[in-house]
Amino acid sequence: MAKCTLVLFAAALMTAATVSRAELSVTQGSAVAKADMRGTTAQEWQYTLRPGDTFLAVARDLLAAGVSSGDLRRYNDLSSHALVSEGDTLRIPLKWLKRQPEPARASSVTGTVQYISGISGQKRPLQPDTLIRVGDEVLSGTGSATIELADGSEIRISPNSRLIFNRLTQYGKSGMVDTRLRLNHGEVHTRVKPVIEGGARFEIETPSAVAAVRGTAFSLQTSPLGTDLQVTDGVVDFGAPGKTRRIPAGYSASVSTNNTNGLIIRRLPPAPNLNPLASPLTRLPAELSWAESPAPEYRLDIFETDSGRWVESRKLRNNRFDIGLLDNGDYEIHLAALDPRGIAGMPAIMPLEVALQARSATLVSPENGATANDDMPEFQWNLNGSNEVARVEIAEDIEFSDIITTSEWAPETRALPSKPLGPGQYYWRVVTEAGGNSVATTEARQLIVNGSLPPVRIISVNYVDSQVRVFWEKVDTASEYRLQLSEEPGFNNIIKEATLPDTTAALRLIPGRRYFVRLKALSDGPLTSRWGPGRELYLE
C-alpha cells in the first residue's frame, strides 16, 4: 500500500511539473525556446503589439542597454524597411529584456504594522498605498497587511511576521517580475501570477528553507523550529537550499531547522463542505455552517475581494460561525480544516456579497413642537432595520443646512446631544446607517428649548448739547432691543419706551432733570428675557 501511495505521489509531481512548464503565458507575451544568432538555445518572450505601438518604441521600452533595435530586427528576420502593426508578434530573448527596480505597494493594512526603510532604517507605521522598495521590511506586530507586486501578485502578511524585500525587479514593460523575499519569522499567504521558466522568478527564503514559485497559491510559516509550506494551487519548489522538491497543490511540506529529518511531505486535509449562504446578504448576523469532519479545528479567514484586506481570521472548534459587523461590499470566505499539528488544509472558498439596507427609524420623543426646559434634552426612537447604527442630528433650520450638533453613532435607540442647546427653536431628526454606505433619514420634528436671554449691559453714554446717545452690548441671540426711560430708579413711571434694532439710541432730555434708562433683549422665539441694570442720565 505504501509503494502504491509513493507511485501516485510521483505521478502527481510529474503532472504538476508538466503543467508548470506549460503555463508560460504572461501579460501580452509568452516564453519559448529558440536558437539565437550565435547558434545557442535561448529562452525568449513573445510580445504582441498593441494599438499605438511602434517598432522603435517597443525596442526602447523593453530592450536592455547594449541591445539595439537592429539586433531585434535581425533576431525576428525583419528587414530595415519592414513594417509592423497592431497584432504582430516580436520574439525577444529573455536576457535582452531591460531590468529595472519596481516597488511593491501596500494595498491594505489592518491593525498595527510597521514599515522599516532599507535606506534610512527609519521605522514608521505602514499605511495603505505605501510604496515598498528593495531592502525595505514589513514588521506586522499585532496587525496584518496585503502587499501587491508590480505584476499583480499578492502577499498577505499575518500578524507577528517579519518580511524583507531583497529584490523587486521588472523586465521593462513586459509585465514579468523577479521577486526575492526573506521571511525571518511568521506567516505569509501568497497568490502569485504564473512566471516564466528561465525568466521571471518569485522566491521566498526563510532561515531553514527556500520556496521557489512557478505560479501558485501557497502559505508559508517559519519559526526557530523550521518552515512549513502548504500549496493550494499550482506547484512550489521547496526544501533546504540546494535540496528542493517540487510540491504540487494539495500537499504540505516541512523542513526542520536542524534538517535531521529531511523534507517531510504530507497530503493536506480536504476542503470542508460549506453550506450555501444567501447572496447578497441583506441581514446580519448570518450563520455560516459546514459539514462535520474529523478535523479537530478549522481556520476561517475573510478577505475583502478588491483590496485583499484581512477582515477576519480565527480558529473554530465547531462547524458554524456567525458572520457579523461587515460593511457592504464583496468578500471571500476561506475555510480550511486543521490537521493535528495545526496546519491548514485545502481551503473551501466562497464569494460573499453584503448589501445591508438601512431603514428609516420611528421617532418616539420629544413630540413635534414640544418644549424642553433642559439644555440637554433626551431624544428617543425605534430602529426598524438590522445591524444598524443611528445618531440624532439637530439644526436651526428645517433644511438642516447647518447642523449645530449631533449624538455619537451607536446601535442605541436614545441619545443626548453632544453639547448643550441654548434657548431657541430647533429641528431634530434621526439618521440610520447600515453596511457603511446605506443611509436612511427620518422626517424632522420641531423642538423649543426654553431659557432666558442675558441682560443687556450699557457700555457708554455720550452727551452732546441737549441730546444723549446710549450704547449697549450686542446679544447674539437677540433680534431687537426694548428701551425704557423713567424719572425714578424703580421704573414705576415709564415716560418713554421704544423697540430698537441696533445697539445704540439717541434721547432728547430736559436739562437739569435726572433720568434712568434700561434695556432688555428680545427674540423671535419664545425666549424669556429680563431687564439689564438701569443707568442714570443727567443733562446740565
Topology readout:
Blueprint: H1 2-22, E1 25-26, E2 29-35, E3 41-48, H2 55-62, H3 69-75, E4 89-93, E5 99-101, E6 104-110, E7 114-116, E8 123-125, E9 131-132, E10 137-139, E11 144-148, E12 154-157, E13 162-171, E14 177-191, E15 201-205, E16 210-213, E17 217-223, E18 226-233, E19 235-239, E20 245-248, E21 251-256, E22 263-267, E23 286-289, E24 297-304, E25 310-316, E26 320-323, E27 329-338, E28 348-354, E29 362-365, E30 370-372, E31 379-382, E32 388-395, E33 403-406, E34 414-415, E35 424-434, E36 438-441, E37 445-449, E38 452-453, E39 458-464, E40 467-472, E41 480-486, E42 494-500, E43 504-508, E44 514-522, E45 528-529, E46 535-538
Parallel strand pairs: 14-15, 30-37, 38-45
Antiparallel strand pairs: 1-2, 2-3, 3-4, 5-13, 6-9, 6-11, 7-8, 7-10, 10-13, 11-12, 12-14, 13-14, 14-17, 15-16, 16-19, 17-18, 18-21, 19-20, 21-22, 23-26, 24-25, 24-27, 27-28, 29-31, 31-34, 32-33, 32-35, 35-36, 35-37, 39-40, 40-43, 41-42, 41-44, 44-46
